Amino acid sequence: MDIQEMEKIEEALRKREISYAEASEKIYSSTTKPWQTVAWKKKREKLIKDSCEQCGSTKGPMVLQHLWHPPSYKEHIGDIYEQFFIKAQNASSLPEATDEEVESFLSEFTEQREACPSCEMRSIIKRKTMSPIYRCRKCGFEFNTPKGLPYNTKLRIVAPTMEKVKKRLTYEKQREFMWNTYGEEIRTIAVLKGIEEHKRYISMEDTKTYCKRCAFLWDKKGEKVCDICKETLIPIPMHACDKCQKEGHPAIL
Questions:
Q1: How far is Cα 83 from Cα 81, in angstroms, rounded to an integer?
Q2: In the chain, what percentage of residues exceed pLDDT 90?
Q3: The pTM is what?
């Protein structure tokens, strides 16, 4: 799919003439990768140079290295959800778990399980010949009488504190509220953001010509050659190696 086709889908989605699901289906259903298209190959031929823009090597073959990659749809969803959540929080529109809901949850813990009186962990052992009879494998505390903790056989956990239950139930209620209220808008914005960044990616504006070695170091090792001496390997965010820094070059531009 070329940029013109993508822009038509983008416009239709912005006008809400199609849903985010329909837009995603149109854009991502194709099994053809961007670099397999004729347009991509023609553009690459115009941009690719005869020498590596990192180390200066002229030993081919050369590759067109992308220095930027678009975030995933999942990452966009997470960021946009957080923005909407903060707005809802500031507007005091988020629900919270009630005391009745907390009590109802805790009422399901009908059985008892033995635990350490000190740390309340169930990692205790009963000894036949030593006193005190019990010892906690977790904290090392020794005791004769275990502490009884309410236990839920379905969830297979001991009862958490009321504070923890309320926090968990509130989180679940708020998440449900957010997706029911803003879910479609969040996903629509995420798809639009994805289209915008995919257009940037296939435009090749963030590319340089690299030799195979420099491309491998960049992609697999997170390293590059020093921008000054073109020899020492340094992390990608850096500008100069230690030696070049001592000669007055800044570590990061």
A1: 5
A2: 87
A3: 0.78
